[in-house]
Design a protein that fits this description.
Number of strands: 31
Largest sheet: 8 strands, mixed
GO molecular function: transaminase activity
Shape: elongated
Family: Belongs to the class-V pyridoxal-phosphate-dependent aminotransferase family. NifS/IscS subfamily.
Radius of gyration: 30 Å
Strand content: 15-25%
Number of helices: 20
Helix content: 25-40%
Distance between the termini: 11 Å
Structural class: alpha/beta
Strand order of the largest sheet: 22-18-19-20-21-23-24-26
Cofactor: pyridoxal 5'-phosphate
Enzyme class: transferase
Keywords: Aminotransferase, Iron, Iron-sulfur, Metal-binding, Pyridoxal phosphate, Transferase
Length: 691
C-alpha cells in the first residue's frame, strides 16, 4: 500500500511518538487525579507541574497565567469572556471603554463568532469592527490607528492558518501604544507554536490561546496565556482545578503528551530548523511550478511561515486539485479545515483583495517541523504525477494532444449543465447549452483533443456564445450563417417518427436532429437509417424541458433525457424513472462489498472519479473484482448501455462515496435495480486494506 504524504499540518498534525508514549504512561501508570493528596495523585501533579513549567519557560510568560484547557476555541472563548466582562464592569462604573470590538479580517471564524456571542449575552451592544488587511495579508496599521481610540478589544493573530502570513505584532503594539489605546489585546498564537519565537511577557498581549494538535500533540488539549494584571473570568467553574481558572479534572493524557512536545521544542533536538523548513517549502514550490503551468502563490514567502504554501491555478477549481492530489495520496486542503467542505471562496484571500478565481480555487499545502527530506522528495514526485495526470486529462495546457473520446461529456452537475457530443473518428463535436462559466474548460478540452466544433447550439434563444467562439479560435467551425439558437444553415434533413422532416447534423455515424417547439429547441441524437431516425434509434434527447409535449412520439423508453439545467443533480432522466430512491438500500460498506462480489463475481466495479484522478491514483482496491473507469461526467453515455443489461450488478466507487452515491441513485431512478455505491469510497477502502 502506498504511504500517504500528509501536507495538511495547519489543520492538524500526527501525534509525536514520544507524546503517544507519554499519554499512554499517564493513562496506564500515572493515572492519579492531580487534585488528590495521595502518592498516585502527587505523581500526576508532578507531571502536570513539569509540563506547565516547561510551557512557561518556552513561551516566556513571566508572571502571567498559563492554564491548560481543551484547545484554542476554548481559549478564545475564555479570553473574549474575560475581556468583555471587565469592559462591562468598567462601563458600569462610569468609565469610557470604547465602542468597537476590533478583529482582523483574516481571523479564524472562532474569533468574530465568539465576539458576537458574548457581546450579545452580556448585553454590551458594542460594534464588531473588521480590521482590513493589505494584499500581502498583514493588518492595515493605518486603519488600526484610525479606530484605536474607539477600540475596546483588539483581536489579531500571530500567523494565519490559511496563508501562513506572519502578523506584524511589533507594529500593532506600536500603534496601540502611540495612540494611547487602552483596549485589551488577544493574539491567536495557534499557528505560531514551534514556528515563531514567543516571549509573551515582553509584549503588550493580554491573551494568547494555543492548541496542541497543531504541533504533534493530541486533539483536545491546549493552553491559554493571560498577562499578569489582565482581567480574567473563568469560562468553566465548579471544581477549582487549574487554581480555579478552569474547573474540571485535568486531561492528564493530553497534558503529558503536550508537555513532551514542548520539552522537545525546548531541547531543540527534535524539530527541523527554520532554514531547513524554508528549503522544503522552496522545493515544493519548484515542483508545483513545474507541474502546474500558470500557478500563482497567494502568500508572500518572505513574510509567511516556512511550513505553508497557498496557491491557485488558472482554470482549475480547488475541488479538482483536491481530488487529483488525494488520488495520489497527497493530503492537502482548500482553505481552512473548518470551511473546506463549503463550496465558497476563501474569506481570507477575499480580504487580501485577490481575484475571485484565486480565492475560489485556492489550495493550501502545510507541513510541520517534524517533516524530513525523504517525505519532501516523495511529495515532489507525486506532484509531478498529478501534473501529468491533469495534462493528460486536458485540464491544464499540454504540448501533446489528449486521447479523443466518443459519446457525451457533461460539464457541471451542480444545477447547470454544458453538454459536449463527441466523435473521436472525425475529431469533431457539437456543444449544447454551453455555460459561460465553462468557457475556459471547454476551450482547454477542445484544444487538447484537437476537436473541430461543428456547432454551438442552445435550447433557448438569446444565449450569447461570442466569448466561447473567440476562445475556440481555429477549432470553431467557419462562421456559416446560423439562426438564433446556433443551428447552422445546412441542407441536411432527417425524417422522424410520424414523417416529420427536420434539419440534421452528421456527427460521425450519428445524427443530431433539431426539433422546433415554439420558443424552444430540442435535439435528438441517434443513428439514422436511410435518412430516418426511428423512435428506437433515439438514444439521447437534449432539452430545456424534459416534459415537453413535442418530444412525445419522437422518443422511446430507452431514450435518456439530458437536461440543460440539473437543479436536482440527477444527470439524466428516462421514461422508466423511479419516483424515489432509498439511499440505505444501495450503500455498501467494505464487508458488504465483499459479500456481494462473492455472490455476484461478474459484478462490474465502476470508478466514477474523473480521468485525471484515475491517472494519478496510487491506490488499488482490495477486492477481487475488475474496476472500470467511467468518470461521472460521462455517466449518461454509459448509463444507456448499462440499462440494456438491467440484470447486471453495478458497484460505483469514488474518492469519498459522495459521487458514487449520486451515480447509483441515477441508475436506480432510471430503472437499474442492481446498482450500488461503496460507502466511504477509496478512502475507507484503503483503511480496510491497511487493517
Amino acid at each position: 500500500m502506498t504511504t500517504e504524504i500528509y501536507l495538511d499540518g495547519n489543520a492538524t498534525s500526527p501525534v509525536l511518538p514520544a507524546a503517544i508514549a507519554a499519554a499512554t504512561c499517564a493513562m496506564g501508570q500515572r493515572y492519579g487525579n492531580p487534585s488528590s493528596s495521595h502518592a498516585a495523585g502527587l505523581s500526576a501533579k508532578a507531571l502536570l507541574d513539569q509540563a506547565r513549567q516547561c510551557a512557561r519557560r518556552l513561551l516566556g510568560v513571566g508572571e502571567g497565567r498559563l492554564m491548560f484547557n481543551s484547545g484554542a476555541t476554548e481559549g478564545i472563548q475564555t479570553a473574549v469572556l474575560s475581556a468583555l466582562v471587565a469592559l462591562r464592569e468598567r462601563r458600569e462604573q462610569g468609565e469610557a471603554i470604547g465602542s468597537l470590538l476590533v478583529y482582523g479580517a483574516t481571523e479564524h471564524k472562532a474569533v468574530p463568532e465568539s465576539l458576537a456571542h458574548w457581546n450579545r449575552l452580556l448585553g454590551l451592544n458594542l460594534t464588531l469592527h473588521k480590521l482590513p488587511v493589505n494584499p500581502q495579508g498583514t493588518h492595515d496599521l493605518d486603519a488600526l490607528r484610525a479606530c484605536a481610540s474607539e477600540a475596546a478589544l483588539v483581536c489579531t493573530m500571530a500567523a494565519n492558518n490559511e496563508t501562513g502570513v506572519i502578523s506584524d505584532i511589533a507594529g500593532i503594539q506600536s500603534v496601540l501604544e502611540q495612540t494611547g489605546c487602552k483596549a485589551y489585546w488577544m493574539v491567536d498564537c495557534v499557528q505560531a507554536l514551534g514556528k515563531l519565537a514567543l516571549h509573551l511577557a515582553e509584549t503588550r498581549i493580554d491573551y494568547a490561546p494555543f492548541s496542541g494538535h497543531k504541533l504533534y500533540a493530541p486533539k483536545g488539549i491546549g493552553m491559554l496565556y493571560v498577562r499578569a494584571g489582565a482581567p480574567f473570568t473563568p469560562l468553566i467553574v465548579g471544581g477549582g482545578q487549574e487554581s480555579a481558572q478552569r474547573s474540571g479534572t485535568e486531561n492528564m493524557a493530553g497534558i503529558a503528551a503536550l508537555g513532551t512536545v514542548l520539552a522537545a521544542l525546548e531541547r531543540g533536538d527534535t524539530f527541523r530548523t527554520h532554514a531547513e523548513l524554508e528549503d522544503y517549502r522552496a522545493r515544493l514550490a519548484d515542483a508545483l511550478r513545474a507541474a502546474l503551468p500558470g500557478i500563482v502563490f497567494n502568500n508572500p514567502f518572505e513574510n509567511s511561515l516556512p511550513t505553508t504554501l497557498n496557491f491557485s491555478v488558472p482554470g482549475l477549481a480547488s475541488r479538482e486539485l483536491m481530488d487529483v492530489f488525494d488520488a495520489a495520496q497527497v493530503r492537502v486542503s482548500s482553505g481552512s479545515a473548518c470551511s473546506a467542505a463549503k463550496a465558497a471562496p476563501s474569506y481570507v484571500l477575499d480580504a487580501m483583495q485577490l481575484p475571485l478565481w484565486r480565492s475560489a480555487g485556492a489550495i493550501r499545502m502545510s507541513f510541520g517541523p517534524l517533516t524530513d527530506a525523504a517525505m519532501i522528495d516523495d511529495a515532489c514526485r507525486r506532484i509531478a504525477r498529478c501534473g501529468a495526470a491533469l495534462r493528460a486529462g486536458c485540464l491544464i495546457p499540454s504540448e501533446r494532444n489528449g486521447a479523443a473520446h466518443d459519446g457525451l461529456l457533461q460539464m457541471g452537475v451542480e444545477g447547470a449543465c454544458s453538454w459536449l457530443v463527441l466523435d473521436a473518428a472525425s475529431r469533431s463535436c457539437v456543444l449544447i447549452d454551453p455555460l459561460p462559466d465553462h468557457t475556459a474548460r471547454i476551450e482547454a478540452f477542445v484544444r487538447c483533443q484537437n476537436y473541430r466544433v461543428q456547432a454551438i447550439l442552445n435550447t433557448m434563444a438569446g444565449q450569447q456564445n461570442g466569448a466561447l467562439i473567440e476562445a475556440l479560435g481555429r477549432h470553431a467551425a467557419s462562421r456559416v450563417s446560423a439562426d438564433a439558437y446556433g443551428w447552422p444553415a445546412l441542407p441536411d434533413k432527417v425524417t422522424l417518427a410520424g414523417g416529420q422532416s427536420v434539419p440534421a447534423l452528421k456527427l460521425g455515424a450519428r445524427t443530431l436532429a433539431c426539433v422546433v417547439d415554439g420558443a424552444q429547441r430540442h435535439y435528438l441524437l441517434g443513428q439514422a437509417q436511410q435518412g430516418q431516425l426511428a423512435v428506437a434509434a433515439v438514444r439521447f434527447a437534449f432539452s430545456n424541458n424534459q416534459c415537453a409535449p413535442a418530444l412525445q412520439g419522437l422518443t422511446g423508453a430507452a431514450t435518456l433525457l439530458c437536461p440543460s439545467r440539473d437543479e436536482q443533480n440527477q444527470f439524466c432522466a428516462g421514461a422508466m424513472a423511479a419516483a424515489t430512491v432509498c439511499c440505505d438500500s444501495l450503500q455498501l460498506d467494505h464487508a458488504g462489498l465483499n459479500l456481494l462480489l462473492a455472490a455476484h463475481p461478474d459484478a462490474l466495479l465502476i470508478d466514477v472519479r474523473e480521468d485525471y484522478e484515475y491517472a494519478a491514483s496510487a491506490t488499488v482496491l482490495p477486492v477481487a473484482g475488475k474496476v472500470q473507469s467511467v468518470p461521472l461526467s460521462r455517466l449518461t453515455e454509459h448509463a444507456a448501455d448499462w440499462l440494456a443489461t438491467a440484470d447486471s450488478t453495478l458497484v460505483f466507487i469514488c474518492r469519498s462515496g459522495n459521487r458514487s452515491l449520486k451515480a447509483a441513485q441515477c441508475l436506480r431512478r432510471l430503472g437499474h435495480q442492481h446498482s450500488y455505491s461503496l460507502t466511504g469510497g477509496w478512502a475507507l477502502a484503503a483503511l480496510a486494506q491497511a487493517a
